[in-house]
Amino acid sequence: MTDTRSRVLTLAGFALTAALLFAVAPAVLSDFRLSLLARYLCFAIVAVGIALAWGRGGMLTLGQGLFFGLGGYAMAMHLKLADAGPGAVPDFMLLYGSGGELPWWWEPFRNPLFALAAVLVLPMATAALIGFLVFRRRVRGAYFAILSQALAAAFAILLIGQQATTGGTNGLTNFQGFFGFALADPLNKRMVYFVIAGTLLAVLLITRQLFRSRYGELLVAVRDSEERVRFLGYDPARVKLAAYTLSAGMAGLAGALFVPAVGIISPALIGIVPSIQFVIGAAIGGRASLAGAALGAIAVAWAQTTLSEEFPAAWTYFQAGLFIVVIAFLPGGLASLRQLLTRRRTRTEGTPA
Amino acid sequence: MTVILSQSFTGISIGAVLLLIALGLSLTFGQMGVINMAHGEFIMAGAYTTYVLQQHLTDAGTSLLLALPAAFAVAGALGVLLEWALIRRLYTRPLDTLLVTWGVSLLLQQLARDIFGAPNVQTRAPEWLTGRITLFGGEHPLTLSHARLFILTLALTAVVALTLTLRRTPLGRRIRAVVQHRELAEASGIATARVDRLTFFIGSGLAGVAGVALTLIGPIGPTMGTNIIIDAFLVVVVGGIGRLRGAVIAAFALGVLQAVVEYSTTVSLAKVAVLIAIVAFLQWRPQGISTVRTRSLA
Question: What is the pTM of this model?
Fold first, then answer.
């Protein structure tokens, strides 16, 4: 496929996606369905980050829940404080007996600008710190995957343990407003949906540009042969750090948008299991393909809500089976299916009978 | 003084559980480079085996002792099945073994839920394990529960047995040969595929034994595997791949650290502290406490 043709196809794909997200979906879906779609789009944003870190960078990050949670809690803390009003503390704190005193680290989140910045800065700074420590010492592969997963688990445990200041297992919930807009109003719910859809498109475009850039080439080179890149005079740790930090930013953003769209953030949404579920969607769709990862995340989340309510047991078997079959026999995910078929066809045509 | 002693004993007993869980992993992950996320569910299988045996035998002691070999066999068989069906296709893609086996672990959890029900179940401990030994009477007596001592003994026995198997038996020699140089082992006439399967049998079987031990200190449930698997993997990461010695040191070090931090703060903060300590430790020794050349973990 020539370069111009692929560019035209991609642009057409983006235009189609934008039309579907902004025109078709709001027109045909009920408010309830649209809010479900908003939730799936949040997962798709996380999946784009996974396609960047894992698909292109080879870093299997099983702990995106950590960053999703950091973004989500930063947003939720602000919304809680905004609901409470100036000088007051969120309702749950009175309930769990922290004495009505606001912990010092909650205080800055009263400021909407601080909260908005924190949504991106907190997860990215955390990822940068972890990545710096881990990649510098060439911890990679399985070691990195397990460490990232342990971090997500530890974060969830920490949140549960500090119930008086974090809401514990219940998490933060019951948000009334979103920067001055009442969330009970369906119109404002739609606005949140549009913000999420716009963010997803922006994230897709930015990542696509990144993939096409020199940096994108370098990232793939590091994935395929870290030593060789080192010999060429680049620092692979820095290349990986950038991709990991960016993917964390995307997860944080998704978490922050998830909060007004779904109305809750809790440890159950960010622990080990949800962290791996983020990866499942991306893997089934196609870990290296942006569109594949995003669509995979949406499809898996959609299948989960529609199937799991009706047949909870069957859904788990189906999800597990699909995951096993795709990873073991189709590592490129469903996005590689077409490629696989065309290649097979050309191969059979190419070989003399 | 006795506070320190009793906290270190708590640490050692946490370490013993960790060790028992990590022992099989250090064989399948450390030696073979396979990241088996279903290891936790093999532990669960061992625990449910104990439960089932106890349903049929009235004497808790007999059923516990019978459960040890039975759980080894059940979990080992599951491991062999997994290796045969999936893992042997993935030896060159270690990260994918992680994802595939996570799918398997989901499957097994749901299976357990369908067979035994979602709520946790419990086994009765035999009488000879319900007591405690009290040392240094007085204000802070040091009490050691029989169950914890039994687990410690079990863990140490398993380490010794595994070490002897690896060092002294023909099978052990073959396992080490395959780990160190697969092609050369193959060329010397070792049936590497069979050795892989046997290694997996032993590693998974040890998970079953760990499951039996866990029935003595907690409830048995479909999600029990998920909760402990990460800790066990961290032990192997800190211990370094390939050597049991590393896993033993790491298990007890992490156990004691956990107990000590827990004593001055809370359980959740202790978990975080242990994790920070691990990341710090990897700065110093990225390959863990001790390593041996293995098939590379890409």
Answer: 0.88
